[in-house]
Design a protein that fits this description.
This protein is an alpha/beta fold. It folds into two domains: 3-91, Orthogonal Bundle (DNA polymerase, domain 1), CATH 1.10.150; 95-330, Rossmann fold (3-Layer(aba) Sandwich), CATH 3.40.50. Helix content is 44%, strand content 17%. The protein has helices spanning 3-24, 28-41, 53-63, 73-91, 102-115, 133-141, 156-169, 204-207, 221-232, 253-263, 313-330; strands spanning 123-126, 148-153, 173-177, 189-195, 200-201, 219-220, 233-244, 264-271, 284-291, 303-306. The strands form two sheets. Strands 3-2-1-4-7-9-8-10 form an eight-stranded mixed beta sheet. A two-stranded antiparallel ribbon has the order 5-6. α1 crosses α4, α2 (28-41) packs parallel to α7 (156-169) and α5 (102-115) crosses α6 (133-141). It is globular, with a radius of gyration of 21 Å.
Protein backbone atom coordinates (compact mmCIF):
# COMPACT_ATOMS: atom_id res chain seq x y z
CA UNK A 1 0.00 0.00 0.00
CA UNK A 2 1.06 3.58 -0.71
CA UNK A 3 1.37 5.33 2.66
CA UNK A 4 1.60 8.78 1.07
CA UNK A 5 -1.72 8.26 -0.72
CA UNK A 6 -3.31 7.00 2.50
CA UNK A 7 -2.05 10.04 4.41
CA UNK A 8 -3.40 12.35 1.70
CA UNK A 9 -6.86 10.77 1.78
CA UNK A 10 -6.83 10.73 5.59
CA UNK A 11 -6.14 14.48 5.66
CA UNK A 12 -9.04 15.07 3.26
CA UNK A 13 -11.35 13.08 5.54
CA UNK A 14 -10.13 14.92 8.65
CA UNK A 15 -10.56 18.41 7.18
CA UNK A 16 -13.93 17.55 5.66
CA UNK A 17 -15.19 16.10 8.94
CA UNK A 18 -14.13 19.27 10.76
CA UNK A 19 -15.99 21.48 8.28
CA UNK A 20 -19.14 19.34 8.33
CA UNK A 21 -19.23 19.08 12.12
CA UNK A 22 -19.11 22.85 12.38
CA UNK A 23 -21.55 23.62 9.57
CA UNK A 24 -24.11 20.89 10.24
CA UNK A 25 -23.67 20.55 14.01
CA UNK A 26 -23.30 16.76 13.79
CA UNK A 27 -21.22 14.11 15.56
CA UNK A 28 -17.85 12.93 14.29
CA UNK A 29 -19.13 9.60 12.92
CA UNK A 30 -22.01 11.27 11.12
CA UNK A 31 -19.56 13.71 9.51
CA UNK A 32 -17.36 10.75 8.53
CA UNK A 33 -20.27 9.08 6.74
CA UNK A 34 -21.24 12.37 5.09
CA UNK A 35 -17.67 12.82 3.87
CA UNK A 36 -17.51 9.30 2.45
CA UNK A 37 -20.85 9.74 0.69
CA UNK A 38 -19.70 13.07 -0.79
CA UNK A 39 -16.51 11.49 -2.09
CA UNK A 40 -18.42 8.55 -3.55
CA UNK A 41 -21.01 10.67 -5.38
CA UNK A 42 -18.51 13.34 -6.36
CA UNK A 43 -20.60 16.19 -5.00
CA UNK A 44 -21.42 17.82 -1.69
CA UNK A 45 -24.87 16.93 -0.43
CA UNK A 46 -26.82 20.10 0.42
CA UNK A 47 -30.13 19.99 2.31
CA UNK A 48 -32.01 23.17 3.27
CA UNK A 49 -29.00 25.26 2.20
CA UNK A 50 -26.72 23.41 4.60
CA UNK A 51 -23.76 23.40 4.40
CA UNK A 52 -23.65 26.97 3.11
CA UNK A 53 -22.18 28.01 -0.23
CA UNK A 54 -18.81 28.98 1.25
CA UNK A 55 -18.45 25.59 2.97
CA UNK A 56 -19.47 23.78 -0.23
CA UNK A 57 -16.74 25.59 -2.15
CA UNK A 58 -14.20 24.66 0.52
CA UNK A 59 -15.29 21.01 0.43
CA UNK A 60 -15.26 20.85 -3.37
CA UNK A 61 -11.71 22.23 -3.39
CA UNK A 62 -10.71 19.71 -0.71
CA UNK A 63 -12.24 16.72 -2.50
CA UNK A 64 -10.56 17.69 -5.78
CA UNK A 65 -7.20 16.81 -4.20
CA UNK A 66 -7.90 13.07 -4.39
CA UNK A 67 -9.10 10.69 -7.09
CA UNK A 68 -10.65 7.56 -5.59
CA UNK A 69 -10.15 5.69 -8.87
CA UNK A 70 -6.41 5.77 -8.15
CA UNK A 71 -6.83 4.02 -4.79
CA UNK A 72 -6.89 0.31 -4.10
CA UNK A 73 -9.69 -1.02 -1.90
CA UNK A 74 -7.17 -1.85 0.83
CA UNK A 75 -5.83 1.72 0.81
CA UNK A 76 -9.33 3.15 1.21
CA UNK A 77 -10.09 0.67 4.00
CA UNK A 78 -6.82 1.53 5.78
CA UNK A 79 -7.69 5.23 5.58
CA UNK A 80 -11.15 4.66 7.04
CA UNK A 81 -9.61 2.61 9.85
CA UNK A 82 -7.32 5.52 10.72
CA UNK A 83 -10.29 7.88 10.76
CA UNK A 84 -12.22 5.44 12.96
CA UNK A 85 -9.32 5.37 15.41
CA UNK A 86 -9.68 9.14 15.66
CA UNK A 87 -13.42 8.65 16.11
CA UNK A 88 -12.83 6.40 19.14
CA UNK A 89 -10.87 9.26 20.70
CA UNK A 90 -13.49 11.86 19.82
CA UNK A 91 -16.64 9.94 20.77
CA UNK A 92 -15.45 7.27 23.23
CA UNK A 93 -16.89 4.43 21.14
CA UNK A 94 -17.62 1.31 23.21
CA UNK A 95 -15.46 -1.76 22.62
CA UNK A 96 -18.23 -3.75 20.91
CA UNK A 97 -18.56 -1.00 18.28
CA UNK A 98 -14.87 -0.67 17.41
CA UNK A 99 -13.70 -2.03 14.08
CA UNK A 100 -11.90 -5.35 13.58
CA UNK A 101 -8.28 -4.58 12.57
CA UNK A 102 -7.09 -5.63 9.11
CA UNK A 103 -4.44 -7.88 10.69
CA UNK A 104 -7.18 -10.09 12.11
CA UNK A 105 -9.12 -9.89 8.85
CA UNK A 106 -6.02 -11.16 7.03
CA UNK A 107 -5.85 -14.14 9.40
CA UNK A 108 -9.52 -14.87 8.60
CA UNK A 109 -8.62 -14.70 4.90
CA UNK A 110 -5.78 -17.20 5.32
CA UNK A 111 -8.00 -19.57 7.31
CA UNK A 112 -10.75 -19.37 4.69
CA UNK A 113 -8.23 -20.02 1.90
CA UNK A 114 -6.93 -23.07 3.75
CA UNK A 115 -10.43 -24.56 3.88
CA UNK A 116 -10.62 -24.49 0.07
CA UNK A 117 -14.37 -23.85 0.11
CA UNK A 118 -16.37 -23.55 -3.11
CA UNK A 119 -17.34 -19.89 -2.84
CA UNK A 120 -17.73 -18.96 -6.50
CA UNK A 121 -20.64 -16.47 -6.76
CA UNK A 122 -21.54 -17.26 -3.14
CA UNK A 123 -22.92 -15.05 -0.40
CA UNK A 124 -21.34 -14.86 3.02
CA UNK A 125 -22.87 -13.24 6.09
CA UNK A 126 -21.95 -11.40 9.28
CA UNK A 127 -24.70 -11.07 11.90
CA UNK A 128 -22.80 -8.43 13.91
CA UNK A 129 -21.33 -6.48 11.02
CA UNK A 130 -20.65 -3.22 12.89
CA UNK A 131 -18.56 -0.87 10.72
CA UNK A 132 -18.12 -3.69 8.20
CA UNK A 133 -14.34 -3.84 8.30
CA UNK A 134 -14.05 -7.61 8.82
CA UNK A 135 -16.48 -8.72 6.12
CA UNK A 136 -15.23 -6.06 3.70
CA UNK A 137 -11.64 -7.26 4.18
CA UNK A 138 -12.82 -10.77 3.29
CA UNK A 139 -14.99 -9.66 0.36
CA UNK A 140 -12.08 -7.73 -1.12
CA UNK A 141 -9.85 -10.79 -0.73
CA UNK A 142 -12.41 -13.01 -2.45
CA UNK A 143 -13.21 -10.52 -5.23
CA UNK A 144 -12.03 -12.89 -7.98
CA UNK A 145 -14.73 -15.37 -6.90
CA UNK A 146 -17.44 -12.70 -7.21
CA UNK A 147 -18.50 -13.22 -3.61
CA UNK A 148 -21.06 -10.85 -2.09
CA UNK A 149 -21.99 -10.25 1.52
CA UNK A 150 -24.90 -9.71 3.89
CA UNK A 151 -24.41 -7.75 7.09
CA UNK A 152 -26.82 -7.41 10.01
CA UNK A 153 -26.63 -4.94 12.90
CA UNK A 154 -29.04 -3.04 15.13
CA UNK A 155 -26.92 0.14 15.24
CA UNK A 156 -27.84 2.45 12.39
CA UNK A 157 -24.70 4.59 12.76
CA UNK A 158 -22.43 1.56 12.44
CA UNK A 159 -24.42 0.41 9.40
CA UNK A 160 -24.04 3.85 7.82
CA UNK A 161 -20.27 3.57 8.21
CA UNK A 162 -20.36 0.04 6.76
CA UNK A 163 -22.46 1.16 3.79
CA UNK A 164 -20.22 4.14 3.08
CA UNK A 165 -17.00 2.12 3.30
CA UNK A 166 -18.38 -0.72 1.14
CA UNK A 167 -19.33 1.79 -1.56
CA UNK A 168 -15.90 3.43 -1.53
CA UNK A 169 -14.10 0.07 -1.54
CA UNK A 170 -16.27 -1.33 -4.33
CA UNK A 171 -17.45 -4.46 -2.52
CA UNK A 172 -21.00 -5.80 -2.75
CA UNK A 173 -22.52 -5.77 0.71
CA UNK A 174 -26.25 -5.79 1.51
CA UNK A 175 -27.00 -4.39 4.96
CA UNK A 176 -29.98 -5.14 7.21
CA UNK A 177 -30.91 -2.96 10.18
CA UNK A 178 -32.34 -5.28 12.81
CA UNK A 179 -31.66 -7.16 16.01
CA UNK A 180 -29.84 -10.29 14.80
CA UNK A 181 -31.40 -12.33 17.60
CA UNK A 182 -34.79 -11.89 15.94
CA UNK A 183 -35.83 -14.07 13.00
CA UNK A 184 -33.62 -13.34 9.99
CA UNK A 185 -34.72 -13.99 6.43
CA UNK A 186 -31.54 -14.04 4.38
CA UNK A 187 -31.61 -17.60 3.10
CA UNK A 188 -28.84 -20.12 3.70
CA UNK A 189 -25.17 -19.24 3.22
CA UNK A 190 -22.06 -21.47 2.99
CA UNK A 191 -19.87 -19.22 5.15
CA UNK A 192 -20.51 -16.88 8.04
CA UNK A 193 -17.91 -14.71 9.77
CA UNK A 194 -18.13 -12.39 12.75
CA UNK A 195 -16.26 -10.47 15.39
CA UNK A 196 -18.87 -11.18 18.04
CA UNK A 197 -19.96 -8.54 20.55
CA UNK A 198 -19.47 -9.75 24.11
CA UNK A 199 -21.94 -9.25 26.93
CA UNK A 200 -25.45 -9.98 28.11
CA UNK A 201 -28.55 -9.91 25.91
CA UNK A 202 -31.25 -7.98 27.83
CA UNK A 203 -34.46 -9.42 26.33
CA UNK A 204 -35.04 -12.76 28.02
CA UNK A 205 -38.26 -13.55 26.13
CA UNK A 206 -36.32 -13.60 22.86
CA UNK A 207 -33.31 -15.38 24.32
CA UNK A 208 -35.34 -18.28 25.71
CA UNK A 209 -36.09 -19.41 22.14
CA UNK A 210 -32.44 -20.44 21.83
CA UNK A 211 -30.84 -23.61 23.15
CA UNK A 212 -27.90 -21.56 24.42
CA UNK A 213 -30.01 -19.30 26.68
CA UNK A 214 -29.54 -19.21 30.43
CA UNK A 215 -32.52 -19.76 32.74
CA UNK A 216 -31.11 -17.92 35.76
CA UNK A 217 -29.76 -14.68 34.29
CA UNK A 218 -29.49 -12.76 31.05
CA UNK A 219 -27.94 -14.90 28.34
CA UNK A 220 -24.63 -14.11 26.68
CA UNK A 221 -25.28 -12.36 23.38
CA UNK A 222 -22.21 -13.95 21.78
CA UNK A 223 -23.62 -17.42 22.55
CA UNK A 224 -26.98 -16.51 21.03
CA UNK A 225 -25.30 -15.07 17.93
CA UNK A 226 -23.28 -18.23 17.40
CA UNK A 227 -26.49 -20.28 17.50
CA UNK A 228 -28.30 -17.83 15.23
CA UNK A 229 -25.37 -17.94 12.80
CA UNK A 230 -25.65 -21.71 12.66
CA UNK A 231 -29.34 -21.28 11.84
CA UNK A 232 -28.54 -19.38 8.65
CA UNK A 233 -25.72 -21.69 7.54
CA UNK A 234 -26.42 -24.37 4.97
CA UNK A 235 -25.67 -27.98 5.97
CA UNK A 236 -21.90 -28.48 6.37
CA UNK A 237 -21.44 -24.69 6.18
CA UNK A 238 -18.57 -23.03 8.01
CA UNK A 239 -18.69 -20.36 10.72
CA UNK A 240 -15.54 -18.46 11.73
CA UNK A 241 -15.84 -16.22 14.77
CA UNK A 242 -13.66 -13.97 16.89
CA UNK A 243 -14.59 -14.87 20.47
CA UNK A 244 -13.25 -14.50 24.03
CA UNK A 245 -10.56 -17.11 24.71
CA UNK A 246 -12.44 -18.13 27.86
CA UNK A 247 -15.60 -18.86 25.84
CA UNK A 248 -16.13 -22.28 27.43
CA UNK A 249 -14.84 -21.43 30.90
CA UNK A 250 -17.72 -19.16 31.98
CA UNK A 251 -20.76 -20.21 33.98
CA UNK A 252 -22.78 -20.30 30.73
CA UNK A 253 -20.19 -22.19 28.72
CA UNK A 254 -21.92 -25.52 29.30
CA UNK A 255 -25.01 -24.30 27.40
CA UNK A 256 -22.88 -23.70 24.33
CA UNK A 257 -21.14 -27.07 24.56
CA UNK A 258 -24.47 -28.85 25.02
CA UNK A 259 -25.82 -27.11 21.91
CA UNK A 260 -22.75 -28.14 19.92
CA UNK A 261 -23.27 -31.80 20.84
CA UNK A 262 -26.02 -32.44 18.29
CA UNK A 263 -25.91 -29.47 15.94
CA UNK A 264 -22.36 -28.25 15.42
CA UNK A 265 -18.87 -29.63 14.99
CA UNK A 266 -16.27 -27.64 16.90
CA UNK A 267 -13.39 -27.95 14.43
CA UNK A 268 -10.78 -25.48 15.69
CA UNK A 269 -10.05 -22.85 18.30
CA UNK A 270 -6.92 -20.77 17.77
CA UNK A 271 -5.74 -18.23 20.33
CA UNK A 272 -4.52 -14.89 19.04
CA UNK A 273 -1.06 -13.89 20.31
CA UNK A 274 -1.27 -12.80 23.95
CA UNK A 275 1.14 -9.95 23.20
CA UNK A 276 -1.53 -7.91 21.39
CA UNK A 277 -3.80 -7.78 24.45
CA UNK A 278 -3.32 -5.64 27.53
CA UNK A 279 -4.23 -8.51 29.83
CA UNK A 280 -4.98 -12.23 29.73
CA UNK A 281 -8.69 -11.72 30.43
CA UNK A 282 -9.08 -9.70 27.23
CA UNK A 283 -7.53 -12.34 24.98
CA UNK A 284 -9.48 -13.41 21.90
CA UNK A 285 -9.50 -16.59 19.83
CA UNK A 286 -10.71 -17.60 16.40
CA UNK A 287 -13.37 -20.30 16.57
CA UNK A 288 -14.10 -22.47 13.53
CA UNK A 289 -17.42 -24.33 13.55
CA UNK A 290 -19.11 -26.53 10.97
CA UNK A 291 -22.81 -27.20 10.81
CA UNK A 292 -23.81 -30.84 11.04
CA UNK A 293 -25.19 -32.29 7.80
CA UNK A 294 -24.11 -32.98 4.26
CA UNK A 295 -20.55 -34.30 4.10
CA UNK A 296 -19.47 -32.62 7.35
CA UNK A 297 -17.63 -34.69 9.93
CA UNK A 298 -15.98 -34.05 13.26
CA UNK A 299 -12.33 -33.11 12.84
CA UNK A 300 -9.94 -35.57 14.45
CA UNK A 301 -8.05 -33.99 16.02
CA UNK A 302 -9.80 -30.72 16.80
CA UNK A 303 -7.25 -28.04 16.02
CA UNK A 304 -6.31 -26.23 19.24
CA UNK A 305 -3.39 -23.94 19.91
CA UNK A 306 -1.84 -20.48 19.69
CA UNK A 307 -1.33 -18.51 16.51
CA UNK A 308 2.23 -17.22 15.98
CA UNK A 309 3.00 -13.54 16.47
CA UNK A 310 1.84 -11.61 13.40
CA UNK A 311 5.40 -10.43 12.66
CA UNK A 312 6.87 -13.95 12.83
CA UNK A 313 6.66 -14.61 9.12
CA UNK A 314 8.34 -18.02 8.96
CA UNK A 315 6.39 -19.34 11.92
CA UNK A 316 3.12 -18.09 10.43
CA UNK A 317 3.89 -19.67 7.05
CA UNK A 318 4.63 -23.01 8.76
CA UNK A 319 1.43 -22.77 10.79
CA UNK A 320 -0.64 -22.12 7.65
CA UNK A 321 0.98 -25.07 5.82
CA UNK A 322 0.16 -27.35 8.74
CA UNK A 323 -3.34 -25.86 8.90
CA UNK A 324 -3.97 -26.62 5.21
CA UNK A 325 -2.89 -30.23 5.70
CA UNK A 326 -5.20 -30.54 8.70
CA UNK A 327 -8.08 -28.93 6.77
CA UNK A 328 -7.54 -31.22 3.78
CA UNK A 329 -7.81 -34.25 6.05
CA UNK A 330 -10.75 -33.02 8.11
CA UNK A 331 -12.80 -30.21 6.59
CA UNK A 332 -12.75 -30.38 2.81
CA UNK A 333 -16.28 -30.91 1.54
Amino acid sequence: MDTEKIEKLFNVFEKSISILQKELDIEYLDALVETGDNLYTGEVQVIDNQPNAEAVRALDKLYSKVKLSEYKSAEIRETIQLVLIRATQEEKIQANHQFTPDAIGMIFNALIDGLDLDLQDAKLADLSVGTGNLIETILDHLASKKVSGIGVDNDDTMLSVASMSASLEGVELDLIHQDAIEEIEIGKVPLIVSDLPVGYYPIDDKAKQFATHDKKEHSFVHHLLIEQSMNVLEDSGIGIFLVPSNLFQTNQGQHLLAYFHDSVYLQAMLNLPLKIFKEQSARKSILILQKVGGSAKQANPVLLGDLPEFNQRKEMQKFLRDYEIWAHQNIYR
